[in-house]
Write a structure and sequence with these properties.
Length: 152
């Protein structure tokens, strides 16, 4: 099962970290493996995954577990790129127990931008906890998309 959510932000950002908060019910539906990607500023404004060259992997995790329900975990991103990003895509590659879960669930995702000196802001969330963007819902959300973008 793969699950993708994409957000476009109003102004390009340099991401420092992000957090995911576990949902309130079944641990088996928690994200266990995922990738967070950023679309480089200046890319064509499209929701299609056809041109993977515009997307950079900012972080990739496998084997992540949440100790309890409603737990917020923060993750640093690869900041070796000096690119600003105007959209972000979270690809959930696997849930905690895929044989017993038919969906993924988490209660919060926060994308935290950097200050001008490249230190994390105190948190300036581009995406708020109810999974909507600054003023708009995600551009799209797709379930069971097949292989992650850019993989053959």
């Amino acid at each position: 099962m793969n699950y993708v959510t994409l957000w476009q932000v109003t102004a390009a950002q340099h991401l420092c970290s992000y957090s995911i908060t576990s949902a309130n019910d079944l641990a088996r539906r928690d994200p266990w493996a995922w990738r967070l990607l950023g679309r480089r500023q200046g890319a064509p404004k499209t929701t299609e995954n056809s041109d993977a060259s515009w997307w950079e992997i900012l972080d990739s995790r496998v084997g992540q577990e949440f100790a309890d329900r409603g737990v917020r975990r923060e993750f640093s991103v690869d900041r070796s790129s000096d690119h600003m990003h105007d959209a972000f895509r979270l690809e959930i590659l696997r849930v905690m127990n895929p044989s017993k879960a038919d969906s993924v669930q988490f209660s919060g995702l926060d994308l935290l931008s950097c200050k001008d000196d490249d230190s994390p802001s105190s948190p300036k969330s581009m995406i708020n906890a109810d999974l909507t963007g600054p003023s708009e819902p995600p551009m799209y959300t797709e379930k069971d998309i097949g292989k992650p973008a850019g993989e053959k």
